[in-house]
C-alpha cells in the first residue's frame, strides 16, 4: 500500500490507462464504467477523478497512450529494414506483436469509432488511423520507386488491404480466443498480401 501512496501523478495516470486497456480485453468497452476501473485499481472513484476531470478525459489518455506506442513500435520496426517491402513486413509484424501484448486495444479503438457522439477520443482514433495509413502509403510509394511492386498497382487499395488484413487476422483471433496465435499466423498471412502487390521476382523472395 505504501508504494501506491508514493506513485507520482503521472504514474497514477499511466496505471489508469493500462488498467482500462486490460479491462477492454475482457469487458465490452462501451459498458466500462469509472467504478469498474476504480475497483480494478483498488481506489475510489474520487481518487480516479483527481487525475482525470471526466470519463472522456480517461478515454483521451488511453487513445493517446495507444497511439504513441503503436506508432513508435511500427516506425522503429520499419526503420530497421533494408528495403521498403521488408519495412512493410516489419511494420505488419510489429503491429501484430503489439496487439498480442495488449489484446484490449482493438476493442477499445473500435468502441471509440462506434461512439454515437463525436468525442475527442473518437477524433483522436480517426487521426491515428490517418497517420497510420500515411505511413503505409509512403512505404508503398518507396517500394514502387524501388521496382518492388507489380506494374499498375493501386496504392490506395494496397494501403487499405494492408490495414484490412491485420483487422481480419485480429478479429478472427479474438473470436476464437486465441490472440497469442497471431504471432504464428502473421507471417503466412503477410506472405499472401505480399504476393498480391509485389513484382514477380519480389513476390517469390
From TrEMBL:
Record flagged with keyword Transport: no
Keywords: DNA-binding, Transcription, Transcription regulation
Domain HTH tetR-type residue range list: 10-70
Statement: the UniProt record of this protein carries the keyword Ribosomal protein: no
DNA-binding residue intervals: 33-52
Superkingdom per UniProt: Bacteria
Family matches, as PROSITE patterns: HTH_TETR_2
Protein name: TetR/AcrR family transcriptional regulator
Gene source species: Halomonas kalidii
Organism lineage string: Bacteria, Pseudomonadati, Pseudomonadota, Gammaproteobacteria, Oceanospirillales
